[in-house]
Amino acid sequence: MYREEDLQQTGKQLKKVILVMSAVLVAFLAISIALASLVNNTLGLIVLLIGICLDIFIWGVYGSQILAYYRFLRDMFTGRQRVESGVVKRVGNQPVYKDNKLYYYEVLIENDGVERILLVDANKPLPDIQVGQKYEFKVFQNFVIDISSEAAV
Known about the structure:
Layout: H1 4-38, H2 41-78, E1 81-91, E2 96-98, E3 102-111, E4 114-121, E5 134-140, E6 143-149
Antiparallel strand pairs: 1-3, 1-5, 2-3, 3-4, 5-6
Helix pairs in contact: 1-2
């Protein structure tokens, strides 16, 4: 499901957002200094505040989400991975907001009477997981990295 290119592309997106934020801040700072020295100091301050607020907006809407996903992918590639197997009891059809950062599909599995919820990244297409079928899930924490099917139960 995941490739090293996913991490590289997310890193490029993060750099692009930081570059846009820097350009916005420099542009508004230059305009602010020009207005403060030529027209009115208060007007320059207002333009600078607008630029800072625009940067905060860009970071809050775009940058923080990309950074969270980049960290998620980086941790997934560098963290300890294990295999969980079990019979799928339920697959969520709508992504849910988890960890106050990202959206995931929930997959409820049962193995030896123990139920566990695994999370599938909503940024990737939801794999065809059949309820009642036994699967092996390669996971990092409770995030699914890869899925392989076993014999039907």
